[in-house]
Write a structure and sequence with these properties.
The chain is 37% helix and 16% strand. It has 12 helices and 14 strands. The longest helix is centred in the N-terminal third of the chain and has 21 residues. Bound molecules: glutathione (GSH). The site of glutathione has 20 residues, from α6, β11, α8 and β13.
């Protein structure tokens, strides 16, 4: 009897999980009237709340782009702050519709969590930050260091691999949130803070004296960061993909939030297809034909998103580097709207 009950229970759980996976997320989001977007608990430039609770960042803009595409309104997003450890469960359980939280696309995550990575909105790599007065110039001088790190990240394994490969030892000090790790770094609880390099630049802005900290030159891993959705809903995966690709294609086509209206009359066939005036528009996504127009009008092109959040118009001052378009010597490339 007990066995039978257990079996019934297990079947129910399986059925519920399958149901959630099959459910058309677009319909759920439309009925609810807003998108639930999983973000970090606070990484400036990526996903960060101000003191009024308004979220900004390049990851936030991916969610705004999806809301503009799916609901016609970039403001219809509820942000759910998640630690690294909590993020995948929140997506699996249906608490959020998309996770857009400086999350690295890896084979294990893409194939064993019931989730799908959508694409890349920032190519990153892991680095190290130290206090200037340590006098350290290279990560290879860090033998025996105390290292602040966050639980549930790719950072943990990369760190262990790097120290082992270079015959060095370290003492990990593990935290759940970036606020805890940067505070511990500042108070000298650890010699080194390690994370994706962009996040080191972001967290450095939170120090009382940012210029006291230096990011070392070594980049020890590949960290392609991008949004994630649940497996089993291809329509929603496609909406996420083509919202992200809209941002990138707009930059390539020279479109941005200020010029998109004047370009609407353009005879350029690539632009009229992008704007949904010709071609398939939003039909294959069950979205209005002008979905990409809404994304760019309300959120901007990839270069606008980059510059205002992490680039030249932000305190982070990150250069485009490999995150430049493929036509400008970078690796940012999106399939075409045709
Ligand atoms: N990209 C890495 C690291 C992501 C990560 O969680 N980084 C920390 C270090 S800055 C973070 O974002 N913390 C923000 C938070 O605690 O909410 C991963 O996907 O595992």
């Amino acid at each position: 009897m007990k066995k039978l009950l257990q079996l019934a229970g297990a079947t129910l759980v399986l059925a519920a999980t399958a149901d959630l996976a099959q459910a058309a997320t677009l319909d759920t989001v439309k009925e609810r009237g807003y998108l639930q977007c999983g973000v970090s608990t606070g990484v400036p430039g990526f996903s960060n709340p101000d003191d009024k609770g308004n979220w900004t960042g390049i990851d936030v803009d991916v969610c705004r782009a999806m809301a503009a595409a799916a609901l016609g309104d970039a403001a219809k997003v509820k942000y759910v702050p998640l630690t690294a450890k909590e993020r995948f469960t929140a997506l699996q359980s249906g608490e959020i519709d998309v996770l857009s939280r400086n999350t690295t696309w890896t084979q294990t995550r893409d194939t064993s969590l019931g989730l799908n990575f959508v694409g890349v909105n920032y190519y990153d790599g892991q680095g190290f930050m130290v206090n200037k007065n340590l006098g350290v110039k290279s990560a290879l001088e860090l033998d025996g260091a105390t290292v602040c790190i966050q639980a549930g990240t790719t950072t943990e394994l990369n760190l262990a691999d790097y120290f082992r490969e270079n015959d060095m030892t370290f003492q990990p000090v593990v935290f759940d949130t970036s606020a805890q790790s940067i505070q511990s770094f500042e108070t000298g609880r650890c010699d080194v803070l390690t994370s994706d390099q962009s996040q080191l630049y972001a967290l450095r802005t939170k120090l009382a004296k940012p210029s006291d900290a230096v990011v070392l030159p070594e980049v020890i891993s590949k960290e392609p960061l991008g949004p994630v959705v649940r497996q089993g809903d291809d329509q929603w995966l496609n909406i996420a993909k083509w919202s992200l690709y809209a941002l990138i294609n707009a930059e390539e086509l020279g479109l941005n939030s200020s010029n998109i209206d004047s370009k609407a009359k353009s005879k350029d066939p690539a632009i009229s297809r992008f704007l949904g005036k010709t071609g398939t528009g939003g039909k294959g996504l069950a979205l209005p034909d002008d979905f990409a127009y809404q994304v760019i009008k309300q959120v901007g092109s990839y270069d606008e998103v980059f510059e205002r959040n992490i680039g030249s118009k932000s305190p982070l001052l990150i250069e485009r580097g490999i995150n430049a378009l493929w036509t400008d010597g970078g690796i940012v490339y999106a399939p075409p709207f045709r």
